[in-house]
Design brief:
105 residues; SH3 type barrels
Length: 105
């Protein structure tokens, strides 16, 4: 699995609010059964609740999604849906959001 790849959320209960799950775990840990993801929510649903530094906006085919970093989660790799998008171009913003949630800077 590649770092900074978004997967389609297969969970019927949560996929409307979070259609994609962004894998942020290092490729060095591919042998671990679980991976760490940040849910991506359509900007229209996440509204003004998103703090820009904590929740970077990500463009996917002309639609804006918000990385809900505060909802980071560990999931079993086998539960991830289909690989959808390589979002490695947002690496700096994602790492800055992770740094902000951990260190506050």
């Amino acid at each position: 699995m590649a770092q900074f790849v978004a997967y389609k959320n297969p969970n019927s209960r949560t996929k409307k609010l979070f259609p994609y799950l962004l894998d942020i775990q290092s490729n060095l840990l591919d042998d671990i059964r679980t991976t760490i993801v940040i849910p991506l929510s359509p900007e229209s649903l996440s509204g003004n609740a998103a703090i820009s530094k904590l929740c970077p906006k990500i463009d996917i085919e002309g639609k804006v999604f918000v990385a809900m970093t505060q909802q980071i989660a560990g999931v079993d790799r086998s539960t991830l849906g289909k690989e959808a998008y390589d979002l490695s171009t947002y690496r700096s913003e994602i790492i800055a959001a992770l740094d902000f949630i951990v260190s506050g800077i």
